[in-house]
Amino acid sequence: MIEFANYIGGAWLAGDEVTININPSDTGDIVGEYCNASREQVRTAIAAAYAAFGQWSATSPQQRADVLEQVGIELSARREELGELLSREEGKIRAEGVAEVLRASQIFKFYAQEALRLAGDIIQSIRPGVAVEVIREPVGVVGVITPWNFPIAIPAWKIAPALAFGNTVVFKPADLTPALGWHLVEIISRCGAPGGVINLVMGRGSVVGDEISRSNHVAAVTFTGSVATGRTIREMVTSRGGKIQQEMGGKSPLIILDDADLDLAAECAVGGSLLSTGQRCTSNTRIIATPAIHDALVDRMVEKAKALTVGHALDAATKIGPVVDERQLETNMKYVDIARKEGGRVLYGGERLQLACGGYYMSPAVIAGCSNDMQHVREEIFGPVVSILKVDDYEEAVHTANDSDFALSSGICTTSLAYAQDFKRRSKAGLVMVNLPTAGVDYHVPFGGRRGSSYGSREQGRYAAEFFTETKTAYVHAPL
Ligand code: NAD
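Above: the input record for the complex with nicotinamide-adenine-dinucleotide. Below: its predicted structure, written as tokens.
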């Protein structure tokens, strides 16, 4: 079995323990053994990043652009191979795995160009003879802590802007899915990033993530993951005066109005909630339907859910792969049970499946008769479970959509421009979709939510500069 080491200060270093990366489609398939970094190794990685910052932050933007461009080119060239590996470690179907690697490539190529575009401002001073400049500078060492569900896209959209703007990085991938993070760092290490600029420390959050979050040498931490972990990390980082950006859970609503195109609406409702095994923070898990379309929509959703073949992620017929691990599968089952006890009608799915290939499988669940105060409707499940709520009218739909502890994404299916425009204004979420699922975003525009879903400034697009740089305001008085 190949052992995959950590990358610290430009060297590959083994650890005392390993995490065994298991294929959730077939638990007999071991993807690899990934070394857990010790606390001492994390401290060494942070010190290496700290030492490398001076030189890297002083490089020309062209040099940084060239590194990122090379990474983007290699990711694209290897998308089939790495996409398949992604499917093996995370369980999303092959096409989605390949698409995610391609997305990571696009992100690196985008930020290669952003390195060259970073701009400040020149503003007239209120004092005669004084010039004012607003300059953007890198922050320092950035800690990158990521979840398991997008094991290369999320690391890419954090690491690429961090490096583009002259920061150095200590990266901790999710312990469940370290393979794609490992390959990403291996590629960056060969594309011209000097030792110490990118460091990989794998292992448990309570050790590796904790050490990163506590270190005074880590100027900023960018985190994506659950609300509970996010809160713990936020307290550690903010209490020592560090900068933090967080993307966390979701319970995104999709309103479906009577005037909606039924086919399109059902496609959005099912595709946006059940595909990728429901393991997307932006999934539209709350379907809010008005009375005239409700029954037909429910029937159509059940029909579509039944057509989604559950199976091994690498099987070409599969539409929904396995759940990521046993613990998440048990959580999903627990919530289906809660839904039944609360009065939800499980019209299809919600059963654990035993397939010949082994693995953590369940049939996607469609639950009708739900209300917004039910526990399974209010809490994030993070599995292939969709709840349908019937409301009286558009006003109640908007109120219900906004009544949540989360506010990541939201959507509406309607043929009325007036309703679409009104919802766009009144949605409290960070993302609003019209006649689209709430999941599925572009990489060159800001991404992020509000309330319990997010903390700090937006990720992605040029707005990422807000987090990965700091402004300095210079006043110059230079009389002749
Ligand atoms: P998680 O919170 O369990 O783990 C996220 C990361 O934090 C992992 O790398 C983990 O090892 C690390 N970690 C855990 N405990 C830590 C600690 N005490 N200190 C420091 N680091 C620690 O989340 P997960 O289960 O990997 O991912 C699923 C969650 O991620 C869901 O809630 C989902 O909604 C969320 N998510 C959000 C977005 C978004 O952009 N909003 C995107 C994807 C996933």
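Notes for the reader.
The longest strand covers residues 130-138.
Residues 253-434 form a domain with the Aldehyde Dehydrogenase; Chain A, domain 2 fold (CATH 3.40.309.10).
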